[in-house]
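notes to self, project folder thing:

trying the whole complex as one job this time. last attempt i did each chain seperately and stitching them together was a nightmare. two parts in total, labels are on each line so i dont mix them up again. if this works i'll redo the older ones the same way
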Amino acid sequence: MTRTVASSRQGVYIDDMAVGDAATFAKTVTEADILLFAAVSGDTNPVHIDQDFAAATPFKSRIAHGMLSASFISAVLGVRLPGPGTIYLSQSMRFRAPVRVGDTVVATATIKTLDVDKRRVTLETVCKVGDTVVIDGEAVVMADRRPTA
Amino acid sequence: MTRTVASSRQGVYIDDMAVGDAATFAKTVTEADILLFAAVSGDTNPVHIDQDFAAATPFKSRIAHGMLSASFISAVLGVRLPGPGTIYLSQSMRFRAPVRVGDTVVATATIKTLDVDKRRVTLETVCKVGDTVVIDGEAVVMADRRPTA
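result (full assembly):
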Protein backbone atom coordinates (compact mmCIF):
# COMPACT_ATOMS: atom_id res chain seq x y z
CA MET A 1 0.00 0.00 0.00
CA THR A 2 1.32 3.39 -1.01
CA ARG A 3 0.93 6.14 1.53
CA THR A 4 1.40 9.70 0.31
CA VAL A 5 2.45 11.95 3.15
CA ALA A 6 2.37 15.23 1.28
CA SER A 7 1.32 16.04 -2.25
CA SER A 8 1.35 19.22 -4.29
CA ARG A 9 -2.14 18.16 -5.41
CA GLN A 10 -4.18 17.96 -2.18
CA GLY A 11 -4.72 20.59 0.44
CA VAL A 12 -6.40 20.43 3.84
CA TYR A 13 -10.02 19.24 3.78
CA ILE A 14 -12.46 21.57 5.51
CA ASP A 15 -13.63 18.60 7.59
CA ASP A 16 -10.17 18.48 9.15
CA MET A 17 -9.92 22.21 9.96
CA ALA A 18 -10.53 23.95 13.27
CA VAL A 19 -10.88 27.62 14.17
CA GLY A 20 -7.43 28.85 15.17
CA ASP A 21 -5.52 26.66 12.71
CA ALA A 22 -2.81 28.73 11.05
CA ALA A 23 -0.20 28.52 8.31
CA THR A 24 2.61 30.79 7.21
CA PHE A 25 4.68 31.58 4.16
CA ALA A 26 7.79 33.74 4.39
CA LYS A 27 9.80 35.38 1.65
CA THR A 28 12.66 37.83 1.58
CA VAL A 29 11.87 40.63 -0.85
CA THR A 30 14.69 41.13 -3.32
CA GLU A 31 15.48 43.67 -5.98
CA ALA A 32 14.54 41.05 -8.55
CA ASP A 33 11.11 40.53 -6.96
CA ILE A 34 10.28 44.21 -7.26
CA LEU A 35 11.43 44.43 -10.87
CA LEU A 36 9.58 41.25 -11.86
CA PHE A 37 6.46 42.39 -10.03
CA ALA A 38 6.61 45.74 -11.85
CA ALA A 39 6.86 43.87 -15.15
CA VAL A 40 4.09 41.38 -14.45
CA SER A 41 1.66 43.87 -12.89
CA GLY A 42 2.41 46.86 -15.09
CA ASP A 43 2.77 48.90 -11.89
CA THR A 44 5.81 51.01 -12.69
CA ASN A 45 5.03 53.64 -10.04
CA PRO A 46 8.37 55.44 -9.57
CA VAL A 47 8.25 54.89 -5.80
CA HIS A 48 9.15 51.29 -6.66
CA ILE A 49 11.70 51.76 -9.44
CA ASP A 50 13.04 55.34 -9.36
CA GLN A 51 15.39 55.97 -6.42
CA ASP A 52 15.63 59.74 -7.03
CA PHE A 53 11.85 60.03 -6.96
CA ALA A 54 11.50 57.77 -3.92
CA ALA A 55 14.10 59.79 -1.99
CA ALA A 56 11.77 62.81 -2.12
CA THR A 57 8.78 60.88 -0.74
CA PRO A 58 7.95 60.24 2.95
CA PHE A 59 9.40 56.74 2.41
CA LYS A 60 12.88 58.19 1.65
CA SER A 61 13.82 55.20 -0.53
CA ARG A 62 12.18 52.74 -2.88
CA ILE A 63 9.54 50.47 -1.41
CA ALA A 64 8.06 47.20 -2.60
CA HIS A 65 4.59 47.06 -4.13
CA GLY A 66 1.93 46.50 -1.47
CA MET A 67 0.38 43.92 -3.77
CA LEU A 68 3.68 42.01 -3.84
CA SER A 69 3.43 41.39 -0.11
CA ALA A 70 -0.28 40.69 -0.57
CA SER A 71 0.64 37.98 -3.06
CA PHE A 72 2.35 36.09 -0.23
CA ILE A 73 -1.12 35.77 1.36
CA SER A 74 -2.23 34.14 -1.88
CA ALA A 75 0.72 31.75 -1.47
CA VAL A 76 -0.29 30.76 2.08
CA LEU A 77 -3.87 30.10 0.99
CA GLY A 78 -3.04 28.43 -2.31
CA VAL A 79 -0.18 26.23 -1.12
CA ARG A 80 -0.62 25.67 2.64
CA LEU A 81 -4.06 26.34 4.14
CA PRO A 82 -6.36 25.25 2.62
CA GLY A 83 -3.80 24.63 -0.16
CA PRO A 84 -4.56 22.93 -3.51
CA GLY A 85 -8.27 22.89 -4.26
CA THR A 86 -8.82 26.31 -2.67
CA ILE A 87 -11.07 28.72 -4.51
CA TYR A 88 -10.31 32.33 -3.58
CA LEU A 89 -13.55 34.27 -3.01
CA SER A 90 -12.51 37.57 -1.46
CA GLN A 91 -9.71 39.46 0.24
CA SER A 92 -9.57 42.69 2.18
CA MET A 93 -6.35 44.33 3.23
CA ARG A 94 -4.95 47.45 4.80
CA PHE A 95 -1.42 48.47 3.90
CA ARG A 96 0.02 49.50 7.24
CA ALA A 97 3.75 49.99 6.68
CA PRO A 98 6.22 49.91 3.79
CA VAL A 99 8.35 46.91 2.79
CA ARG A 100 11.87 47.42 1.42
CA VAL A 101 14.45 45.32 -0.40
CA GLY A 102 15.97 42.88 2.06
CA ASP A 103 12.90 42.73 4.32
CA THR A 104 11.55 39.28 5.07
CA VAL A 105 7.77 39.23 4.95
CA VAL A 106 6.01 36.54 6.99
CA ALA A 107 2.43 36.01 5.81
CA THR A 108 0.16 34.18 8.24
CA ALA A 109 -3.41 32.99 7.69
CA THR A 110 -5.45 31.94 10.74
CA ILE A 111 -8.89 30.37 10.51
CA LYS A 112 -11.57 32.62 12.07
CA THR A 113 -14.78 30.89 11.01
CA LEU A 114 -15.76 27.67 9.24
CA ASP A 115 -18.99 26.82 7.44
CA VAL A 116 -18.58 23.17 6.48
CA ASP A 117 -21.92 22.91 4.65
CA LYS A 118 -21.13 25.86 2.41
CA ARG A 119 -17.39 24.93 2.33
CA ARG A 120 -16.56 28.54 3.35
CA VAL A 121 -13.49 29.38 5.39
CA THR A 122 -12.77 32.88 6.70
CA LEU A 123 -9.16 33.57 7.61
CA GLU A 124 -7.42 36.48 9.26
CA THR A 125 -4.47 37.38 7.02
CA VAL A 126 -1.49 39.26 8.36
CA CYS A 127 1.91 40.08 6.86
CA LYS A 128 4.69 41.11 9.19
CA VAL A 129 8.31 42.26 8.86
CA GLY A 130 9.79 41.43 12.24
CA ASP A 131 7.21 42.68 14.74
CA THR A 132 5.76 45.28 12.37
CA VAL A 133 2.43 44.53 10.74
CA VAL A 134 2.75 45.60 7.10
CA ILE A 135 -0.64 44.25 5.93
CA ASP A 136 -3.68 43.06 7.82
CA GLY A 137 -7.01 41.88 6.50
CA GLU A 138 -9.31 38.97 5.89
CA ALA A 139 -9.73 36.29 3.24
CA VAL A 140 -12.72 34.12 2.37
CA VAL A 141 -12.06 30.92 0.46
CA MET A 142 -13.89 27.75 -0.53
CA ALA A 143 -12.18 24.50 0.50
CA ASP A 144 -12.66 20.87 -0.53
CA ARG A 145 -14.66 18.45 1.57
CA ARG A 146 -13.16 15.07 2.37
CA PRO A 147 -14.46 12.61 -0.24
CA THR A 148 -16.95 10.13 1.22
CA ALA A 149 -15.83 6.51 1.20
CA MET B 1 9.85 77.94 -20.82
CA THR B 2 9.75 74.19 -20.65
CA ARG B 3 6.33 72.62 -20.35
CA THR B 4 6.17 68.97 -19.32
CA VAL B 5 3.01 67.40 -20.61
CA ALA B 6 3.38 64.04 -18.93
CA SER B 7 5.97 62.75 -16.50
CA SER B 8 6.53 59.41 -14.87
CA ARG B 9 7.14 61.39 -11.68
CA GLN B 10 3.88 63.28 -11.09
CA GLY B 11 0.39 61.95 -10.78
CA VAL B 12 -2.97 63.72 -10.58
CA TYR B 13 -3.31 66.17 -7.69
CA ILE B 14 -6.34 65.57 -5.49
CA ASP B 15 -7.29 69.23 -6.04
CA ASP B 16 -7.79 68.41 -9.72
CA MET B 17 -9.93 65.28 -9.19
CA ALA B 18 -13.70 64.94 -9.33
CA VAL B 19 -16.02 62.13 -8.33
CA GLY B 20 -16.58 59.97 -11.38
CA ASP B 21 -13.08 60.44 -12.82
CA ALA B 22 -11.78 57.10 -14.04
CA ALA B 23 -8.65 55.49 -15.43
CA THR B 24 -7.91 52.07 -16.89
CA PHE B 25 -5.02 49.71 -17.38
CA ALA B 26 -5.34 46.67 -19.62
CA LYS B 27 -3.07 43.66 -19.95
CA THR B 28 -3.30 40.38 -21.77
CA VAL B 29 -2.44 37.55 -19.39
CA THR B 30 0.22 35.30 -20.88
CA GLU B 31 1.75 32.00 -19.90
CA ALA B 32 4.86 33.94 -18.87
CA ASP B 33 2.85 36.19 -16.54
CA ILE B 34 1.45 33.21 -14.66
CA LEU B 35 4.85 31.55 -14.32
CA LEU B 36 6.55 34.77 -13.22
CA PHE B 37 3.75 35.53 -10.77
CA ALA B 38 4.07 32.03 -9.29
CA ALA B 39 7.80 32.62 -8.86
CA VAL B 40 7.51 36.09 -7.36
CA SER B 41 4.58 35.31 -5.05
CA GLY B 42 5.51 31.78 -4.08
CA ASP B 43 1.96 30.77 -4.99
CA THR B 44 2.56 27.49 -6.80
CA ASN B 45 -1.02 26.25 -6.31
CA PRO B 46 -1.36 23.49 -8.95
CA VAL B 47 -4.52 25.08 -10.36
CA HIS B 48 -2.12 27.65 -11.87
CA ILE B 49 0.76 25.44 -12.99
CA ASP B 50 -0.42 21.79 -13.21
CA GLN B 51 -2.72 21.15 -16.16
CA ASP B 52 -3.63 17.59 -15.10
CA PHE B 53 -4.68 18.85 -11.67
CA ALA B 54 -6.57 21.81 -13.11
CA ALA B 55 -8.47 19.58 -15.55
CA ALA B 56 -10.09 17.82 -12.58
CA THR B 57 -11.28 21.08 -10.96
CA PRO B 58 -14.48 23.01 -11.73
CA PHE B 59 -12.28 25.35 -13.82
CA LYS B 60 -11.36 22.49 -16.24
CA SER B 61 -8.03 24.13 -17.13
CA ARG B 62 -5.35 26.25 -15.53
CA ILE B 63 -6.38 29.70 -14.35
CA ALA B 64 -4.37 32.81 -13.52
CA HIS B 65 -3.78 33.84 -9.92
CA GLY B 66 -6.55 36.15 -8.68
CA MET B 67 -3.85 38.36 -7.20
CA LEU B 68 -2.27 38.72 -10.64
CA SER B 69 -5.40 40.42 -11.95
CA ALA B 70 -5.58 42.35 -8.68
CA SER B 71 -2.09 43.65 -9.37
CA PHE B 72 -3.46 45.43 -12.45
CA ILE B 73 -5.56 47.53 -10.03
CA SER B 74 -2.30 48.48 -8.34
CA ALA B 75 -1.03 49.52 -11.78
CA VAL B 76 -4.02 51.80 -12.45
CA LEU B 77 -3.65 53.47 -9.06
CA GLY B 78 0.14 53.67 -9.08
CA VAL B 79 0.62 54.80 -12.66
CA ARG B 80 -2.60 56.54 -13.80
CA LEU B 81 -5.01 57.73 -11.10
CA PRO B 82 -3.79 59.14 -8.81
CA GLY B 83 -0.44 57.91 -10.26
CA PRO B 84 3.01 58.73 -8.85
CA GLY B 85 2.81 60.02 -5.30
CA THR B 86 -0.09 57.70 -4.41
CA ILE B 87 0.07 55.96 -1.05
CA TYR B 88 -1.99 52.77 -1.06
CA LEU B 89 -4.02 52.51 2.16
CA SER B 90 -6.46 49.66 1.61
CA GLN B 91 -8.05 47.39 -0.95
CA SER B 92 -11.01 45.05 -0.87
CA MET B 93 -11.83 42.64 -3.65
CA ARG B 94 -14.12 39.81 -4.57
CA PHE B 95 -12.89 37.27 -7.09
CA ARG B 96 -15.93 36.75 -9.29
CA ALA B 97 -14.73 34.70 -12.27
CA PRO B 98 -11.56 32.97 -13.45
CA VAL B 99 -8.98 34.48 -15.83
CA ARG B 100 -7.14 32.25 -18.30
CA VAL B 101 -4.10 32.55 -20.54
CA GLY B 102 -4.95 34.80 -23.45
CA ASP B 103 -7.62 36.76 -21.60
CA THR B 104 -7.23 40.53 -21.64
CA VAL B 105 -8.01 42.03 -18.25
CA VAL B 106 -9.17 45.64 -18.18
CA ALA B 107 -8.77 47.19 -14.73
CA THR B 108 -10.74 50.38 -14.10
CA ALA B 109 -10.63 52.66 -11.08
CA THR B 110 -13.41 55.23 -10.67
CA ILE B 111 -13.41 57.90 -7.96
CA LYS B 112 -16.30 57.44 -5.53
CA THR B 113 -15.45 59.91 -2.77
CA LEU B 114 -12.84 62.62 -2.18
CA ASP B 115 -11.65 64.11 1.09
CA VAL B 116 -9.26 66.86 0.04
CA ASP B 117 -8.35 67.90 3.60
CA LYS B 118 -7.33 64.36 4.54
CA ARG B 119 -6.01 63.69 1.01
CA ARG B 120 -8.12 60.50 0.92
CA VAL B 121 -9.55 59.13 -2.33
CA THR B 122 -11.92 56.17 -2.44
CA LEU B 123 -12.14 54.41 -5.79
CA GLU B 124 -14.35 51.64 -7.12
CA THR B 125 -12.01 49.06 -8.65
CA VAL B 126 -13.25 46.61 -11.26
CA CYS B 127 -11.44 44.14 -13.51
CA LYS B 128 -13.25 42.80 -16.53
CA VAL B 129 -12.55 40.29 -19.29
CA GLY B 130 -14.87 41.37 -22.07
CA ASP B 131 -18.20 42.01 -20.32
CA THR B 132 -17.47 39.63 -17.44
CA VAL B 133 -16.50 41.14 -14.11
CA VAL B 134 -13.63 39.04 -12.77
CA ILE B 135 -12.86 41.23 -9.72
CA ASP B 136 -14.77 44.00 -8.03
CA GLY B 137 -13.92 45.96 -4.93
CA GLU B 138 -12.78 49.25 -3.50
CA ALA B 139 -9.47 51.01 -2.92
CA VAL B 140 -8.56 53.84 -0.57
CA VAL B 141 -5.44 55.84 -1.37
CA MET B 142 -3.76 59.05 -0.28
CA ALA B 143 -2.98 61.50 -3.09
CA ASP B 144 -0.74 64.56 -3.33
CA ARG B 145 -2.13 68.07 -3.00
CA ARG B 146 -1.15 70.66 -5.57
CA PRO B 147 1.81 72.58 -4.17
CA THR B 148 0.90 76.12 -3.19
CA ALA B 149 2.60 78.85 -5.24
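what i see at first glance: Chain A touches chain B through 46 residues (CB under 8 Å).
need to look closer tmrw
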